[in-house]
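step: validate -> pass
step: tokenize input -> pass
step: predict -> running
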Amino acid sequence: MHPRILTTLVVLGFSLVAMGTSAPAAEPAQISMLRKSWEQARDRAAQPIDESYLRELHKLLDTFTKSGQLEDAIVVKTESQSVVDDASTAAAASAEAVKKPAKLDSLRKTWVQSRDKALQPSNAVYVRELQKLQESYSKAGKLEDALAAKSELEKVGGTPMPASRQSKAFVGKKWATASGSHFTFKADGTGTQANATGKEWPLKWTQDADDLLTVEGWSDDKKATLYFRFPKSREGTFGSSTDKLDKQVSVK
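step: predict -> pass
step: emit ->
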């Protein structure tokens, strides 16, 4: 074979290998920072609950040891060490993996339930912010970044942002509360909020995939976040947390 042809083939071969082994696109910095903040928020929320569980495990271990229930004591000791090593993994582990004493089983169920409830707010914020990023990246034409946000949403059980399917029936209406205050939402994500005396403040709103509205508004001249749902065209509910929409609004 002619030397020049051989050299060309070798160079081409190396080029194809390099193309086939190229590193995947780097994750957007915004997603990395958002995940870090979410993990820190989860750790803060779970810490007191995990510490309380460990104290109860220590008491149970002492009880089983003193009463000679050594097999049960070893199970409790193992559970305690798993929580110390990685509480999140321990909480997610199947409770049926090892047969547990009834007292430990009850204690563990309470711990997992309390932990899940404590983590819900930070999880909801993380999902909501990822949805915003996906939508923002999509609008800017950054499709790889939008896909990264979508993939992260799927990992944490969130729903990717289906903007075209969302209801916007609440836009352009004046929504009044029982106390006489009212809210108005514009299509561009802004709006106004007024108290019973007529004093107004500007607000901003976003909507997630479940039609939950997050409103950056006001409460007694202080900035406050409120959450709204509008299941009917002229009626809705709102509140200061996602799991307590206990106030009513209706079209005035």
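step: describe -> Residues 16-23 have pLDDT under 50 and may be disordered.
step: cleanup -> pass
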